Amino acid sequence: MIVVLKRIVTDEEKRDLIQMIENMGLQVKDAGSENHGVLGLVGDTTKVDITHIEAQHIVDKVMKVQEPYKLASRTFQPMDTVIDVDGHKIGGGNLTIIGGPCSVESEYQIMHIARLVKASGGHLLRGGAFKPRTSPYSFQGLGEDGLKFLKKAKAETGLPIITEAMSIEEFDLIEQYADIIQIGARNMQNFALLKHAGRSSKPICLKRGMSATIEEFLMSAEYIMASGNSNVILCERGIRTFESYTRNTLDLAVVSAIKELSHLPILIDPSHATGRWQLVEPVSKAAVAIGADGLMIEVHHDPEHALSDGQQSLKPERFTKLVEIVGKIHQIV
Ligand code: PEP
Ligand code: MN
Questions:
Q1: How far is the CA of 227 from the centre of ligand 1 (A)?
Q2: N or C, which terminus of the chain has less Cβ within 10 Å?
Q3: Rounded alpha-carbon distances, angstroms, from residue 121 to 114, 118, 286, 319, 322
């Protein structure tokens, strides 16, 4: 539910109204700007007497938010969310390029790739230290050692770090190292993990589950936001269809849909979406053209020997070219 306030309202009047609404058992989020007073009411609004709120003299109108997600909805917050990571802004018309290997494999590997990503003009470094692998026999990641190597790579290059947390147990450790914590596709509906991420002070990059609808995707973002963390970045990484030539099927229209429904930034991950390095550049161009806020690209200096996802990783020179081309497309858009 959204409460639109009249033009001229004193701070004290607003405070009293918020108090009154909180006494009804609801949370109040102040989503207004200087000359546009808006309060978002979160919680079970079914038992609330709207006429009672409407009757308050500082209230202009009360509107029901039709969507099941509230905090994530564009109705609740018309302005784009912009997330600041070490001075780099994600969302609000900026283009963010994240590059790096699927997994952190060694100190040499991540340092080497970090330097290349930096030199190519990438803004953030990715790399999994805790890896969600389909097979228990595949490389599972270096764990905390991987996090230490990422930290070292950041210290040298200045690139902020994004890395995945797969469970609550390791979340707090990862939080100490990461600038953005990723929640992967397989955990998009791990509600306990989402709530935990909601209590973090770090931005969360939430990847779309492989069979999740757009509404379910936004409801998962809502879980994080309802627990107190409004810095959520969405990431489309393809969904499961009958197609088997590509690893997943990229739902590019999701960018436009999300822009209409939500104020949260949305990135595209063309690496996991296609599973083929040859498709990464063309898909990236389309993603930026349609208005994505950024790209997350797997980059490896020796993809033939990568411990995970080599077939979808770009060699550094191709990544450099990609950054240059999508930068031009972004300017035009
Ligand atoms: C990843 O980005 O490292 C990853 C595992 O992606 P996803 O969760 O989209 O499969
Ligand atoms: Mn990968």
A1: 24
A2: C
A3: 11, 5, 19, 9, 10
pLDDT per residue over 151-160, tens digit each?
Answer: 999 999 999 9
Q: What tokens appear for 178 in the block?
A: 């990461």
Count of CB atoms situated within 10 Å of the CB of 218: 26
CA of 298 to the centre of ligand 2 (A): 7
Question: Which residues' Cβ are closer than 6 Å to ligand 1?
Answer: 102, 128, 132, 164, 184-186, 207, 237, 272
Concatenating the DSSP letter of every residue in 94-124 gives --EEEEE-SB---HHHHHHHHHHHHHHT-SE
Residue found by looking up tokens 């060694």 in the block? 106
At which residue do the structure tokens 């009047």 appear?
13
Calculate how far, in angstroms, residue 272's C-alpha sits from the geometric centre of ligand 1: 7
Between 277-290 and 253-261, two packed helices, what is the crossing angle to 10 degrees? 40
Whether 167 shows a pLDDT value over 80: the answer reads yes
Tell me the residues surrounding ligand 2 (ion) with CB < 5 Å.
102, 309
CA of 97 to the centre of ligand 1 (A): 16
Q: Residues 100, 284: contact at Cβ < 8 Å?
A: no
Ligand lying closest to the C-alpha of residue 127: 1
DSSP 123-162: SEEE-BSS---SSTTS----THHHHHHHHHHHHHH---EE
C-alpha closest to that of 99 among 278, 267, 291: 267
CB contact at 8 A, 306 and 314: no
Q: Which two tokens stand for residue 225?
A: 């936001």
| Rounded-to-integer distance, Cα 272 and Cα 250, Å | 9
Atom of ligand 1 nearest to the CA of 132: 5
Atom of ligand 1 nearest to the CA of 296: 2
Nearest atom of ligand 1 to the alpha carbon of 184: 8
β-bridge partners, 88? 85
Contacts of 177 (CB under 8 A, 6+ apart): 147, 148, 150, 151, 161, 163
**pLDDT, tens only, 85-108:** 999 999 999 999 999 999 999 999
